[in-house]
């Protein structure tokens, strides 16, 4: 059933019940898969397990390079653990953009969800207004219907009219019979 654009926006009919509202098909492109990957990493970095692992890694690094055999140390405490500082700086420099990207993607999802909620609320309002108008129309139609008291009074009036006609017919019949009897007597 095709509907004109005006009919789709009017409140005089409900939204067609058979129409399904489905989410748009998502095309998983390279940027989308990269975005999902970065969200996964950002999500993992926000867990207590990541913080615990990073803490244990740093403690092991510091312990090895402080108390380990002199020949096996690869990051000198005398130089301020330069390699560890560089690794943590590199991790932080990648973590910040990944977290921002994940937040931006979340903001986009929330914006889409808010738009869908707004559209759903508009449809609900339109349906509610339509139903309210229909209820008012039904109330007005019910007011025009005859009530039982009205029907009883009409039936009494018809019955009284019928009784009056019946009494008049009987009286006319008696008069006719009386005239006929008089005519036969003469």
Number of strand elements: 0
**How would you state the average pLDDT, rounded?**
84
Spatial separation of the terminal alpha carbons: 86 Å
**Major sheet, described briefly?**
none
Low-pLDDT stretches are none
What class would the helix/strand composition place it in?
A: mainly alpha
Fraction of residues in helix: over 70%
**Cα Rg:** 46 Å
Oligomer: single chain
Count of DSSP helices?
5
What is the 3D form? rod-shaped
Order of helices and strands: HHHHH
**Strand percent estimate:** under 5%
Transmembrane segments: 46-64, 76-101
Pfam families: DUF1003
Biased composition (Polar residues): 1-12
Protein name: Putative membrane protein
Give a short synopsis of this structure.
With 186 residues, the protein is an all-alpha fold. It is built from five helices and no strands. The radius of gyration is 46 Å and the shape is rod-shaped.
Tell me what the structure shows.
This protein is an all-alpha fold. Among the domains are: 31-117, no CATH class; 153-179. Helices cover 76% and strands 0% of the residues. It has helices at residues 5-9, 30-45, 48-67, 82-144, 148-185. It is rod-shaped. It starts with a helix and ends with a helix. Residues 1-12 have a biased composition (Polar residues). Keywords: Membrane, Transmembrane, Transmembrane helix.
């Amino acid at each position: 059933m095709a509907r004109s654009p005006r009919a789709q926006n009017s409140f005089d009919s409900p939204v067609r019940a058979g129409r399904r509202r489905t989410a748009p098909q998502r095309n998983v492109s390279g940027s989308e898969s990269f975005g999902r990957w970065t969200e996964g990493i950002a999500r993992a970095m926000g867990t207590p397990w990541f913080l615990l692992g990073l803490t244990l890694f740093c403690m092991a690094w510091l312990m090895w390079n402080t108390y380990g055999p002199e020949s096996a140390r690869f990051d000198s405490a005398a130089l301020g653990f330069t390699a560890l500082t560089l690794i943590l700086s590199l991790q932080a420099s990648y973590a910040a953009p990944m977290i921002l990207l994940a937040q931006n993607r979340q903001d986009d999802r929330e914006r889409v969800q808010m738009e869908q909620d707004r559209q759903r609320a508009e449809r609900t309002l339109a349906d509610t207004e339509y139903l309210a108008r229909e209820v008012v129309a039904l109330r007005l139609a019910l007011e025009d219907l005859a009530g039982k008291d009205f029907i009883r009074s009409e039936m009494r009036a018809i019955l009284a009219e019928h009784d009056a006609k019946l009494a008049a017919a009987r009286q006319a019949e008696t008069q006719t019979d009386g005239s006929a009897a008089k005519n036969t007597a003469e």
